[in-house]
Amino acid sequence: MTTRDQALERLRSDEFDVLVVGGGITGAGVALDATVRGLRAGLVERDDYASGTSSRSSKLVHGGLRYLQHLELGLVREALAERGVLQRIVPFLVWPTPFIVPRYGKRRQLAIRAGLDAYDVLAIGSGFPRHRRLDPGDVHRLAPALRPDSGGGLQYWDARTDDARLTWTIARTAMEHGAAMANHTEVVGLLRSGPEIRGRGPSGRVAGAHVVDTISGESFDVRARVVVNASGVWADAVMRMGGPDATPGIRPSKGIHIVFPASRVPLSAALTIPAPDGRYIFCIPYADAEGHVLVGTTDEDYAGPVDAPRAHPDEIAFLIDTLNRVLDDPVSQDDMLASYAGLRPLIQNPGQPSKDLSRRHKVIVSDDGLVTITGGKLTTYRRMARDAVDAALDAGRFGRFPRSRSSQTHLAGGQPAPGLVEALAARAAEAGIDPMGVPRLYHRYGSRAADVVDLVVRNPSLGEPLHPALPYLRAEAAYAVSDESAERPDDVLSRRLRLRVTSADRGVAALDWIVDLLARHRGWDPARRDRERQAYSHDVAADAAAERDG
Ligand SMILES: Cc1cc2nc3c(=O)[nH]c(=O)nc-3n(C[C@H](O)[C@H](O)[C@H](O)COP(=O)(O)OP(=O)(O)OC[C@H]3O[C@@H](n4cnc5c(N)ncnc54)[C@H](O)[C@@H]3O)c2cc1C
Question: What's the mean per-residue pLDDT of the chain?
């Protein structure tokens, strides 16, 4: 029986204090916060953990220099404090990174310096260095991709992460604390404590959800004292399940990213580049050991279908044009490996352009007791979760309950362990794993990297590369299936590992091996194997077609 099967059994039979709808970073955070406080928590996710916006961000754990332009000092201070908390509770996934702002004319430079002065003040005590001036030699050394005549610049520090791995790590920690969580399980309706009243619809408070296991097709009810709606850009749809009168609150804003091989844009620091629309775009070494750079993002109101946003040629051209303003050797769409698009679940504020909307979060408690948490950022997920659980405790009239302890709760693999990397290197050497790969394993799994290495010790063929162009091991895919709730090829290729956006074939060279692996573990018949293979191939072909034709 897999962890998911066990969770489904509990979701069917137990009664929960809190049921969370949505397994993005916010929902995973709510499940963890609630469980650590001693509440019985369940979570259902219609697709995979982080399959929504939480795998499609710029992957920064940051204060957000740009929010200083809107004088959102409180938000920036809060996010910078969270950057410090995350560095403590999940150190292996928060990677401090220097950012360079090349020189762009005197007036803009003065404004950027003033912003960085404020950023330093708001970050006091965070342990990150203050910003400093760079001379042209420093800039060229850290960012050889820039034009040689770029001159000096400024350097400040922020942190990168892998958003999907961070989300999964929070979800896993919640499971290890006792939450019952299942991916590929969709909420299709809300349960009520009162009867259906003819002509007036359902009555009473929300008391759980009707769900469908989208893998088996089976449907069942999950009972809970409070339901927390953490479904991101789908939050309005879930609120409307409570009744057609629910006030819509979400205004999706689309942002895309494009990925290049690091050889085309050589950098050892990230770049912050002013864009023609007054914002900044980032050019970020994606994860050094994997040899890619990520360029993004755009910020536009979005009215299309929210299920599968994709990058279009005009958006890609905007990013490439902005980047080429500073590069010595301009890039084109032909150099690009892949793209992805995400939707920010921003809170409505009529009349304001999407790029000016606040990134603050909001908790809404409906008359029927449904708690909805939305807005916010990846970086501030922990505070969002804390506020949502506080509201759930009120809504469910739970009486006295402990305060949130999430700032003290280490995430899975993140407990301090002196000598961990050295011990991992020794074990990897026994397994015949290239020592250069050890830091990469540590930065994905923390102390749990030892479990991945052990798979290779037991079965040396799992030490082979999973894909000819990337350093991932077959053991990592095997671990995703055996220990990380990956149920479908896309769960492995897009989120537990990131082959879909870091290889020119979008991971297709590894698809057959992964389908075979899943088929063995989950007992798939030949028809299911074909369906899964085709579903993934069609999906990535649709990404490529959208990039080309819009
Ligand atoms: C382009 C872009 C760049 C960004 N960059 C950054 C950044 O660098 N740093 C930062 O801090 N923030 C960043 N953000 C913001 C951040 O990514 C989001 O705020 C965050 O990921 C939202 O997480 P969420 O859990 O609220 O939503 P989601 O991740 O979308 O999760 C909601 C989940 O609910 C599930 N769901 C929906 N309906 C149902 C249902 N009926 N039943 C069950 N499950 C359901 C969905 O499948 C989905 O997985 C960025 C956002 C974008 C779009």
Answer: 93
170, 381 contact by CB (below 8 A): yes
* pLDDT (average), residues 147-173: 95
For residue 243, give every residue at least 6 positions away whose Cβ sits within 8 Å of its Cβ, in sequence order, or none: 201, 202, 368
Q: Does 354 sit in the ligand 1 pocket, CB within 6 Å?
A: no
Ligand 1 probe mutation, 57, 181, 299, 354, most atoms within 8 A of CB: 57
Among 55, 58, 78, say which to mutate for ligand 1: greatest number of ligand atoms within 8 Å of CB: 58
User: What is the rounded CA–CA span in Å between residue 192 and residue 207?
Assistant: 5
* Distance (Å) from CA 61 to ligand 1 centroid: 14
Place of tokens 């509201």: 391
Q: Is the CB of 41 under 6 A from ligand 1?
A: no
Atom of ligand 1 nearest to the CA of 22: 34
Contact by Cβ (8 Å): 323, 281: yes
Which residue lies with its CA nearest to atom 10 of ligand 1? 378
DSSP-derived letter for residue 245 is: T
Determine the distance separating the centroid of ligand 1 and the alpha carbon of 530, expressed in angstroms: 30
Q: Which residues of 433-445 are buried (b: 16+ CB within 10 A; e: fewer)?
A: beeebbbbbbbbb
Q: Is the pLDDT score of 453 beyond 60?
A: yes
Count helices and strands (H / E) in the chain. 17, 22
The overall longest dimension of the chain from CA atoms, in Å, is 76
Atom of ligand 1 nearest to the CA of 47: 47
- pLDDT at res. 486: 98
Ligand 1 atom showing the smallest separation from residue 52 Cα: 30
Residue-wise pLDDT tens digits, 208-253? 999 999 999 999 999 999 999 999 999 999 999 977 777 768 889 9
Among protein residues, the one whose CA lies closest to atom 1 of ligand 1:
255
CA distances from 428 to 74, 415, 459, 460, 517 (A): 45, 20, 13, 11, 23
Q: Does the pLDDT at position 164 exceed 90?
A: yes
Number of neighbours of residue 534 by Cβ within 10 angstroms: 10
pLDDT digits (tens, 9 = 90+) for 296-332: 999 999 999 999 999 999 999 999 999 999 999 999 9
Going by the DSSP 8-state scheme, the letter that residue 303 receives in this structure is -
Q: Which residues pair with 182 in a beta bridge?
A: 44
Q: How far is the CA of 453 from the centre of ligand 1 (A)?
A: 31
